[in-house]
# Entry
Amino acid sequence: MVFSSGQTEGEIVPSSAGCRCAYCLAGKDHAGLDTGSAITDPLILPGGGGAVTPENIGTNNALNLVHGFEWGPGGGTAVTVTYSFLTSVPSYYPSTADERFLFSSFTPEMKDATRTILQTISTFANVTFTEVAGVGDITFGQALLELPPTSLLAYAYYPDQGNVGGDVWLNNLFAFPSIMDPGEQGYYAVQHEIGHALGLIHSFDAGFTGDENTEQYSVMAYDVSPWGNTVFASGYMLYDIYALQSIYGANTSFNSGNTTYTLDPNAAYTVWDGGGFDTFNSSAISANVIIHLEEGGFSSVGLSEHIAIAYGTVIEATKTGSGHDHIYGNAADNTLEGGLGNDHYHYSSGDDTVTDTGGIEILHLPDVVVNENNVSFLRYSLSPDDLVIYLDDLDGNDQTSIGTITVSDQFEMSGAYRVETLEFHSGFSAALTNLRVTTFATQSADTIEGIMFGAHPDDTIYAFGGDDIVEAKDGNDIVYGGAGNDQLWGNDGGDALFGNQDDDIIYGGAGDDFLFGDEDDTAASESFFGNDIIFGEAGEDWIEGNKGADMISGGDDTDIIFGGSGNDLLSGDNGNDYLVGEEGDDILSGGA
# Structure
């Protein structure tokens, strides 16, 4: 292809009908792909552009860049390719060829950049490059290829083109040595031409349009990039890597251990990783960032969607900084740490761990994962440091295809570290009026509040050991106090509150409640008793003190109260009440 300079953004400069490249001088057509001839179309230099959002993360059209040109048999077969930096023009070029006009060798800066590019290719594709003297499979040289105003920056010949196949030429009219660092125009031009020398065609010849026809997806593109014209892609991009791997095979040994990638806010590149437990680290960046861990996804940590994850690469973890960040997980078991800002975690699948280090944390559970057809319960359990959220079916079975989310440091003592919001997408929140919530507390002293989904949710809460405070909120709730001196609050709705062991205080709240001071008199609970204080409050309540010396107040409305064993004090309060002292020396007061 030809890499053209001196153009305004978006301007297409036509090739001359008869340039002096080796193919034109041989009387061959240099514009047709199918004939196996060289490409000399001008390149529109990447310029400024707005933010580009990938239309479909995971849609992979990279193979359109492959058109049957390759070293070796192709089809994923590893090859060894020699290369050389020319000190003179090879004899197979005609005497009048452009390549002979003011020929010069690559400078040391240009050679170093070229070696770096070739080494980079070997990290993701099974191509071994060997530098040789004289003429290699791929050669690099400079010449005055064409004069202004239609000056060409560079061009290259595909493999399978006879002697000239794989040759890369730069126009020495331009000051390449000064623009050969990654992210600069000269470096990008060499990447582009080496792409041709290895068999890749232009993105527009591949049929790409819109976002795909920019260097965000491929260095074989001409069109403007989403991050502007001051930064060029510093490596091969998403489609380039996959296309070259399809020809020469993927290098799965590169970075196959546990690797941490410190993300560069000022560079555009794609990450290929061979395996292990890997981390994207942007914790030093204070600005808001967007992290996509999906293969084929683009992250924004300084520029607009400038860091991609190659197809076949799995990044398991991320750490972000103090900004208000959005983090999108993938199908792996992710470890996500959002830093100090108000962060959004977008759940995909797998068993994910979210470590909250400050700010307001929001978990997004997408509709594709959570829907009324396969989920009826949101269940969560607490360990001393973590909140684990389970999504269950109608039978209470954990949905293995959905997995779990673990939120670390949910109940930090300072109160500063916690997740405040769980959000279900696509209007599914309306269906959550039927969602049941179950929580299991720890053996420590816990404070638990019922979850509010829809108007009147029904919660099931197990407090376990410790002196717990449980507030069930609205709905028809079931609360088990467990061991310890607990305070149980039913609030609105028809609740069933079980104090279980030790000395509990139970408030039924509004609604028709069932209140039990201790467990039922079964063989397993004979030793469980406590001196309980029970308030039926509003509603027609059924109250059982069970074992122990209990103080029971029926509250408003018509209540039925059983003192159980022990010396009990029963007060019906307002309403027409039915009081049964049962065993022990009891005091019964009917009230108003």
